[in-house]
Amino acid sequence: MEERTKTPPWQSLVRLVFGSMATQVVGLAARLKLPDAIGDGERGAGDLAAEYGMRESTMLRLLRALVALEVLTEASPGRFGVAQVGELLRADRPGSMYALARLITEPVMLTAWQNLEFSLRAGSPAFEETFKADFFGYLADHPELSQLYNAAMSQGTLSVAETVAKGYDFSRFETVVDVGGGDGTLISAVLRAYPGLRGVVYDSAAGASAAKQTLDRAAVAERCVVETGDFFAGVPGGADLYLLKSIVHGWDDHRAGTILRHCGQSVAPHGRILMIEHVLPDAVPPGANPLTYLNDLNLLVNGHGLERTRADFERLCAGGGLTLTGIEPLPPTGFCWIEARPG
């Protein structure tokens, strides 16, 4: 068998240090909606340059960089189409990740990352040091960015919702409260998979603003209500399952423990708390996906969260008055379900 050629270390290093440039190129393509402008066929560099008010020569350089990054294709010199990766950047497509790409490459997000060293030394968000406001407070003052954030969270959830619905047995329960459930994307998938289940979407007024429309589109609105509030103050009572996807990792142990404590106090005696989160191994294994570890740093730079190991979740549950009862992976998403019971 022919031995697979390994990438020379210098090439790996160059790819890493040029990574921020790739982010800028892809972020600009998303902001310009270039894949939407190209559409299903092909377009020439001159045609696109005229549409965007750019020089043909510089547009050609941008388009060819996007080809090299596997976002676009160049079937013939100067004629460009959209590659599979680029299709995910199309805002007009089902399954689009346009909002997520826009959010991650927003100048606001990238500016805070320039102060990564501050976060590492101070143990606090560079975002707050840079903008003199916490992340969610900043969103509240910038409605367009807030809408982009909500759309990005929905797109991120949509990619794993069906896997969560199939990967955990929800048939044991009667009512599930999706804590921090946003626009209802996750609970819609769960309710579609379990017709006997009823649900509650619980989030802030801004976070849940689009939930009714999502539930209507999924034809589950008759079995699900939308309630708004602050999960640091409490959660709706009376359910036998509390579902939290990517909520716990957004907060430090004290605040995450407060959320879990409210869920434990509200859940039925026989009920469960179900978290959908990444679970870090005790040491980084060979071939590990770097995205989880980069997101761990992102949670530090832009907020007060962190990714956790199994032992971390056990301590966190104990601090919230819960007992961890199981953790199982949800391939191929990279997430796990983490189940706990009160007491």
TrEMBL record:
Out of the domains of life, which is the source? Bacteria
Classification via PANTHER family = O-METHYLTRANSFERASE CICE, PUTATIVE (AFU_ORTHOLOGUE AFUA_4G14580)-RELATED
Give one GO term, molecular function aspect. methyltransferase activity
Q: Quick one: signal sequence residues?
A: none
One Pfam family name is Methyltransf_2
Q: Which residues form the O-methyltransferase dimerisation domain?
A: 15-89
Name by which UniProt lists this protein: Methyltransferase
Q: Does the keyword Lipoprotein apply?
A: no
BP terms from Gene Ontology: methylation
Q: Which UniProt keywords apply?
A: Methyltransferase, S-adenosyl-L-methionine, Transferase
Q: Describe the location of the O-methyltransferase C-terminal domain by residue ranges.
A: 113-321
